[in-house]
Write a structure and sequence with these properties.
about 400 residues; mainly alpha; I/LWEQ domain; 2 domains; 12 helices; about 75% helix; about 0% strand
């Protein structure tokens, strides 16, 4: 009862990559819905309070997902107890996602209890599964339990607060605890500290899973553009805005997947300390990338609703130019961590997007959207052409 007699850890063989199982892809469906909920929440709460709440919701959803991919990197999802764990996490994720729009209202308790149940429950399963088979990971997962139990106090305390600022304060404290925990090695009294060298991970699997989440977020941007366009009265400006939205999605895919994703996958697989790279590049930096995609998706819907006839307002500027800037910065940081230097194309793109944001009030939303789309295409093409020249 205190530990599994069967070893459910993945078998590591030299030269063999861990495959992403269909149960993992099935698990991701919950987060397609979660990303939709978060983007719609931001769209309907275009204010400072709405932005703060959206950041909290996104961080919570991301941490649930990213800790689960770490779990399936260690455990074999083809074994039925691991699959049952994933299905249980899916149910908790559905409660989390469905309560997200009212997480700062009448469903705060559902959101908080679902989050704590998922994070603590997963950690308990990992402790049970490794006790007799992997001493280092067993101690590490015990430390996970301690930190999630500690942060859970703040989640539960926050949902009992009637004042919004107090609720947000407790939840921000809970997220801060969970975000800094890896940097302290999950130090726990009597259990010591975890070291990244002890985290035996498959770099290819980690890179593929994070790439799939980027696809989920990009899919949400295409879904929003398509759904909004289908309900609009079609005209030349609306058609141009729709094409700009599609090109923007393609350019974001190109910027991330054409070079960065595969090269990072090779780098982490060859690293002497893949856990350290994965912790920073995938657990943290990818939050910026996903956040940028979500913000751009909101900007696309605002642009499609009123493409011409007035100057771009602050919400449109922040969503389109600001979201693109956040995305390029996130991908550039990801590549810098993987390759050791910032891509010049990304630095130039960030500078131009910052200038564009400052001057955007003089433009229609459509013109701003076209400029953002052209910038992202330029960043992708610049990097592709320069690296091809180096290869030659």
């Amino acid at each position: 009862m205190l530990g599994s007699s069967v070893n459910y850890l993945r078998e590591r063989k030299d030269g063999e990559e861990a495959r992403v199982d269909f149960s993992e892809l099935f698990f991701d469906l919950v987060f397609v819905f979660a990303i939709t909920q978060i983007s719609h929440y931001l769209l309907h709460h275009l204010s400072v309070d709405g932005l703060i709440n959206t950041v909290i919701l996104l961080f919570a959803v991301w941490l649930v997902w990213v800790y689960t991919i770490w779990a399936t990197n260690w455990f074999d999802p083809r074994r039925w107890p691991v699959r049952m764990m994933l299905f249980a996490l899916m149910l908790g994720g559905l409660f989390l996602s469905t309560s997200a729009p009212e997480a700062f209202g009448e469903r705060a308790e559902v959101f908080a209890f679902a989050y704590v149940a998922v994070q603590v429950g997963r950690s308990i399963f990992m402790v049970w599964a490794t006790r007799h088979h992997d001493r280092a990971n067993y101690l590490g997962f015990l430390r996970f339990c301690c930190w999630f139990a500690f942060s859970g106090i703040f989640w539960i305390a926050g949902c009992t607060m009637e004042e919004l600022n107090w609720q947000r304060g407790f939840w921000v404290a809970a997220l801060a605890i969970e975000l800094v925990a890896p940097w302290f090695g999950y130090w726990s009294p009597g259990l010591g500290t975890s070291k990244t060298q002890d985290w035996r991970i498959d770099g290819h699997h980690m890179a593929e899973r994070c790439g799939l989440f980027v696809i989920i977020a990009l899919g949400e941007s295409i879904l929003i553009a398509g759904a909004t366009f289908a309900e609009m009265q079609w005209s030349a400006p609306v058609l141009a805005a729709f094409v700009a939205a599609f090109v923007t999605s393609v350019a974001m895919w190109w910027v991330y997947f054409n070079i960065g994703a595969e090269r990072s996958r090779e780098r982490i697989a060859a690293s002497a300390d893949p856990g350290a790279i994965a912790r920073l590049a995938y657990s943290y930096v990818h939050m910026l990338i996903v956040a940028g995609i979500i913000v751009i998706a909101v900007g696309v819907e605002l642009m499609l609703a009123h493409p011409v006839g007035h100057h771009a307002g602050l919400p449109v500027i922040l969503a389109l130019a600001g979201g693109a800037l956040l995305y390029v910065f996130g991908v550039g940081l990801f590549k810098a961590l993987s390759f050791g230097r910032w891509p010049l194309s990304h630095l130039a793109g960030m500078v131009f997007l910052a200038i564009l944001a400052c001057a955007a009030r003089a433009f229609d939303p459509l013109v701003l959207g076209l400029a953002v789309s052209a910038t992202l295409v330029t960043v992708a093409a610049w990097e592709f052409i320069s690296l091809r020249a180096l290869r030659h």
